[in-house]
Amino acid sequence: MTHKSPAGPVRNHRSRALWSLVLLVVCLWPVTGAANGSISPPAAVRLDAGRLDWSAVTLRGRKLLVPVAAELELRPLAAAELAAALVQPQRGQPVPARGTVLLLDYHSRSLGKDLRIRLWFRGGDLAVLQRSRLERTPGQERYKVYRYTAEGIYVTRRKPRPGEVKWPPQRWSQVSHEFIPYPPGVPGGQVVSDPAVLFYVAAVANFRELGEEIRLLSYFDDEMQVVTLRYEGEETVRVDFHMQGPQGETRVKGRRLALRLGLTSVPLDRHDGRNEVAIASLRQPRLLVDRRWRLPLELRGRIKMVGRVGVHLDQAMMHAP
What's the whole-model pTM score? Predict the structure, then answer.
């Protein structure tokens, strides 16, 4: 499998759709339900893939001397490309590809970290098939591939030996394998997802009532976590970004009405406190999503020793109507 980072932001319709969504350092984000089946979001919150209007975004921000930025792309995969990318686990029955499978590909930079994440997931029920995490931070280079199965997660880890740092991560020769079984608290017949899927959910979920939630499961910080995406209301946001569409590029400046979504997480098997989701090193994240286009207009959160930080939409690539 070849790990490619997203291309740079595009300014014309022929360029590759590139999202720079400040998923800043999403160190293994949480998402869906449980062991491999179908996710069951609240009946009142319907997911409508047809309302996804964009294919790429870029967000940027700065607090004091701390810059925050990321690039991200979302696209459906053809069967042949998907088959070539998926790892065959040595243990466990792999989560199968059915229906539309999407690739979420993003690159974030914050606090000196250089992180690239790819996520292969089913658009219908948000089940994750595979996730890769490539860290290029100098001195901390490592590459992990997580292949999800019905019984647990098969993990392949790679690190470079001296002289290999500049090689493609698939060629790094320090390799280890591990199988992490799902804990007893994960019920059978459901799916395990990933936190990054929540950006897709934010774009297609039909939130109606204040306080509506979607809860998802994901493995991170060495344990299974339950992540909650909560609709907290509406807010007017000041924006200034470039939007590329079939008719060319336009500048959007002024105020936009946005949905405010909050993210929290708790360990599945423990009740001794919260373990907040970190998005691009931002704790206690709040995502402001354009009510009409569902573009991520702003990501807010806290960085230790720095305080509150906001990352704003800089560029967006839109689908044809």
Answer: 0.80
